[in-house]
Amino acid sequence: MQFGIFTVGDVTTDPTTGTTPTEHERIKATVALARKAEEVGLDVFATGEHHNPPFVPSSPTTTLAYIAAQTERIILSTSTTLITTNDPVKIAEDYATLQHLTDGRIDLMMGRGNTGPVYPWFGKDIRDGISLAIENYALLRRLWTEDVVDWEGKHRTALQGFTATPRPLDGIPPFVWHGSIRSPEIAEQAAYYGDGFFHNNIFWPMSHTKQMVQLYRRRFEHYGHGAAEQAIVGLGGQVFMRKNSQDAVREFRPYFDNAPVYGHGPSLEDFTRETPLTVGSPQQVIERYAAMADEVGDYQRQLFLMDHAGLPLATVLEQLEILGGEVVPELRRIAAARKPAHVPDAPTHASRVAAAGASPEAVR
Amino acid sequence: MSATRRIVVVSAGLGQPSSTRLLADRLATATTDALLERGLEAQVDVVELRDQAHDLGNTLLTGFPTGGVRAAVDTITSADGVIAVTPVYQGSYSGLFKTFFDVLAPDVLKGTPVLMAATGGTARHSLMLEFAMRPLFAHLKASPLVTAVFAASEDWGTAGPSDHSLAARIGRAGEELAAAAAARVSSGPVDPFADPVSFDDLLST
Asked: How far apart are CA A308 and CA A6, in angstroms?
């Protein structure tokens, strides 16, 4: 099982000090977090993509390439890549390039984006969100798997005799996850292609997450990619830890109370009960996240949101030490012990190359 | 058709006791009686929005129904008929009333008969039901009944029976809701995860 972190890249004032990082500081902090994630033994670092303040990550491949140059092992990913408003041709080119530069240490998570004005800023209409996600991704796959593409669709100009360069590393496109919080159509899309499905459940109750994951698993089997329990599932998570749980609650509460999205809403206690947010001791985090598989089945990737709501970089780096040092090793052990042999690990470039070599049909 | 109809009362009154709830209860009784005349049992569930006020605020902020809001949403999702009652605030339905309908998923009330009612200090507000509440339920694709009931303060002290008394209007509205609920074959809540649009259909549209 893979464990990692994903960042939204928000520039948020620290409510306890009133200080706000500059964009420069936030971007450099992102690199520091990724390096620390590798150092403490995490498997994945993923960045969001946004095109409006107060977010800095508008250019994920630039940042990921820079991080790749300073790391050795960690898989770099996105959370998410906007399949709706980005040109699929540019996604094909950018991420194939990144794949070569990183020797295959990348994958992507597709998402639609929920910031209304981003669509018109990029010449699209949010009401076409699902249609854009489906058409653009269908084209992206063809650009990665077919050397010469003739294509015509609704949402971008037609292509005749187009070859996306560079071609994917070893002829194997990056693995793709599809992220969606509540659209059954996207779970269906992930299932149809046999791609991964990531439910970013950090603001949602498990009852809902379970419905989405079950739909994806059922349809994954329906489309003939394997048994439902063999589908590739990822979940989000959000934690804040101190040795004593009371200390964790005391320190995190002002960040929670003023956080973007849920701040000034439900109490920390209500929110931790209803969502995966866990504020407490490392042991409490282990117990909560080890139990996730009881709800959604054995899954392949767990990403934690660690660096939002104005938490200072030094604090987040400490949190990563605890996560990598105390929590993830135990979660790995528990996950490995419970996972049946026929449930696959998350695909990597190496495993996909091997699978293609053994049986080219296995990789679509 | 089963012999029971589920009637869900949504009351946005804030006082305790509240005249809005009083009107809601009388409408529920009238509906229950009219269903009984048709040989049908009524199962009446009341959603008191006052009790959900904090959780409705949280639901707006978190995007998922928290606390008691989830149960309230589930309740209205399976209604055969709805009795929706609000006090008039600033010339319209109250913000709390609107907030509840704001957090419903699309199509939850599609085709559901709705008996609209309101309370206010003066009958001069009575057309609020027509110019504000009826368009709300039209937007929700619900089926608001012809008769909507407004109870001004003075109505509670006006003697009946006449065709225009509050009691007569309540009786007429209860009769309409019973008729609509009786004729309704509720398909139950729609589970968007049960039967997804197949990907081939998604690709071809």
From this structure: 10
Residue pair B174/B182 in contact (Cβ under 8 Å)? The answer is no
List the single residue in A134, A189, A203 with the smallest CB-CB distance to B62.
A203
* Cα–Cα distance, A74 to A67 (Å, whole number): 10
- A17-65, pLDDT tens digit by residue? 999 999 999 999 999 999 999 999 999 999 999 999 999 999 999 999 9
Question: Which residues does chain A have within 8 Å of residue B196's beta carbon, measured at their own beta carbons?
Answer: 184-185, 187-188, 215, 219
- Domain enclosing residue B123, as ranges: 4-204
Q: Alpha carbon of B194 to those of A210, A215, A233, B112: distances in Å?
A: 13, 8, 19, 22
Which amino acid appears at position A106 of this protein? I
Instruction: Measure CB to CB from residue A262 to each of B61, B67, B205 and give the nearest one.
Output: B61
Which of B99, B199, B200 best tests the A interface by mutation, with the highest count of A CBs <10 A?
Answer: B199
Residues B147-170: tens digit of each pLDDT: 999 999 999 887 766 778 999 999
Q: Are A305 and A238 in contact (CB under 8 A)?
A: yes
> 């079950």: which residue's tokens?
A214
Set out the domains of chain A in order of their start, with CATH numbers.
2-362 (3.20.20.30)
- CB pair distance less than 8 Å for B196 and A265: no
Q: Quote ipTM for the complex.
A: 0.79
